[in-house]
Every structure is written in C-alpha cells, then in structure tokens.
Write a structure and sequence with these properties.
By secondary structure, the chain is mostly helical. It contains ten helices and no strands.
Length: about 300
C-alpha cells in the first residue's frame, strides 16, 4: 500500500510535467522550426520557387485542377493554373514582410511617444494613462482575447479607410496595422521609463533638468530595447492574423497577389487547394503565439516594470 501510495504522487508529478514542461518545450521547438522555415522561404523565395507566382496556364491541355495532380505541381494548381507551391512560398515572403515592417514601424513611432510621455508627461501621458486604466478594469484572463478582438476590429476599420482613399496594397496594410500597434508599444515604453524613474528618481534625472547619468541611460535604453522585443514578439501573431483576415475578406493586399489569405479565399471555389494556405496560416499563427509567450516569459524578469497588455 505504501508503494502504491508513493507511486501515485510521482505518477501525478510526471503527468503534470508532461502536460506543462514537456508540452511547452516541444511546442517551443516546433514553433522555432516553423518560424525558421518561414524565414528561409521569405529570404530564398526566388531560388525555391519552381514557377513564378503569377505564371498562369501551366497545365494547358491537361485535365484536373487541385492537389497532387502531377510531379511538376505536387500541391496542384489553382483555377488559373498557377502553381500552388510557388505561391505558398511567395506568400510566406509577403507575410514576413508585413509582420516585420509593422513591428518595426510600431516600435519606432511608439518608442518616441513613450519616451515623450515618460519623460515630459503632457497630453500623450494622459492618453496612455487613461488607456492603462481602461485595460486594468478588464479581468486579466480576458485581456489578451479582448485586445486581439480590438486589434482586428480596428485593423479592419483602418484598412477600409485606407483602401477607400488610397487603394488596396501591402503598404497600406502595414500602415494601418502599425497605427493600431503604436498605443501598446508607447504604453510599454512609458511604463518602463516611469518604473525606472520611480525606483531611482535621483538617478533618472539630475536637478535642473540635466541629462541622467550614463549608467541610468544605459539601463533605460536596455530596458526599452527588451520591452520592444517583448511587445513586438507578442504583436507578431496578431499582426499576422489581422493581415490574413484582411486579405481573406478582400480589403487588404491586392487581389491576385500570392498572399495566404487571398489563396484561402480563392480556394473555396477550387478543388482542395484552399487547405494548403489554411494549414500554413494555422501553423504559423500557433508558432508565433508560442514563440511570443516564450520571449515574454524569458525577458520580463529582466525589466523593472513592463506593461503586460
């Protein structure tokens, strides 16, 4: 009986380890593999593509449109007889461009606003403080879900406004999603600066408004850099999902481009080709989700304070 009683807790501990540590490590490594493949496809797209992404009529005179129709087109062709594999590879390139460009633009603008709010206050600080107060009223378990919905809704709205005024295109999608990401980035930078100044007010600014000491500047710049990495990694999944949905609805990237959302929407009228871009979307979103949370869990302890939006 003692042996059975002793083995039960150990078995439970093993189950908990398998459920948490084992699964988390496995999901992390799989996510890293997916992200590496995505980056390689983006960088090496001109060398990996068997055909051009816009090349039509690749199977003239042959019967059948769909997956696994020939060795020349292992994933098949779409209704315009464009090679699905080539378009998936170039779709990865477009997704990487949108995510990296949006994160970089949001970080540049948000860091500037956050620095101004953290150091000088003013109306920017009041707006960010109100945003933080509004977010704090939401239960923690609902914050990520609520913010994801808000991001997508505002992204759709901004995309529609830009499309109606400037026309659809990848640059307009980047601008729209960057505008949505700026408040979160600037709030994180503002909270980092306020956290350091609140912990060491004498070191954050010298009397008379002079510049802070070199050590404080280095700590602040390092903390801001880490904070931008955290926010950017968490925003990557939301940006990717928003871009994909906008393209799927036809209000984002121009129709006909090899974007995964467009391919998934176009695949609804084909013979199974929509499964391939949908699989790429699901696996990439999951990989970005696990990777973003891993970056956050690893880097947050290095910060004096960070806004967990």
């Amino acid at each position: 009986m003692a042996t059975a009683g002793a083995s039960a807790p150990s078995g439970k501990r093993f189950a908990n380890w398998l459920q948490h540590e084992g699964v988390r490590k496995l999901s992390l490594w799989v996510s890293l593999l997916v992200i590496i493949i995505l980056l390689l496809c983006a960088v090496l797209a001109p060398f990996l593509e068997p055909y051009g992404p816009h090349e039509v009529g690749l199977r003239k005179g042959e019967q059948g449109v769909g997956p696994f129709v020939s060795l020349q087109h292992p994933l098949g062709v779409d209704r315009l007889e464009r090679d699905t594999l080539s378009r998936l590879i170039y779709g990865a390139r477009m997704s990487v461009f949108v995510v990296l460009s949006t994160v970089a633009l949001s970080a540049a603008v948000g860091a500037g606003l956050g620095l101004a709010a953290g150091y000088f206050g003013g109306w920017v600080d009041h707006v960010l403080t109100g945003l933080a107060a509004a977010i704090s009223t939401v239960p923690p378990g609902w914050r990520s879900t609520l913010l994801s919905i808000v991001l997508l809704a505002l992204g759709f709205y901004m995309a529609l406004v830009l499309v109606s005024n400037l026309g659809s295109g990848i640059n307009n999608v980047v601008i729209a999603l960057s505008i949505i990401g700026v408040p979160r980035t600037s709030l994180a930078v503002r909270n980092i600066i306020r956290g350091i100044k609140g912990r060491n007010p004498a070191g954050a600014a010298e009397p008379g408004g002079t510049t802070p000491p070199l050590g404080s500047r280095r700590e602040m710049l390092f903390s801001i850099f880490i904070g931008l990495l955290i926010v950017g990694s968490l925003q990557a999944k939301q940006i990717f999902v928003a871009e994909t949905l906008l393209s799927f609805l036809g209000v984002g990237i121009a129709w006909g481009e090899p974007a995964w959302g467009i391919m998934a929407a176009d695949g609804r009228t084909g013979m199974g080709n929509g499964w391939f871009p949908m699989a790429c979307i699901v696996y990439t979103a999951a990989a970005l989700h696990f990777f973003g949370h891993w970056v956050r869990d690893m880097l947050v302890p290095r910060l004096p304070r960070i806004a967990r939006l």
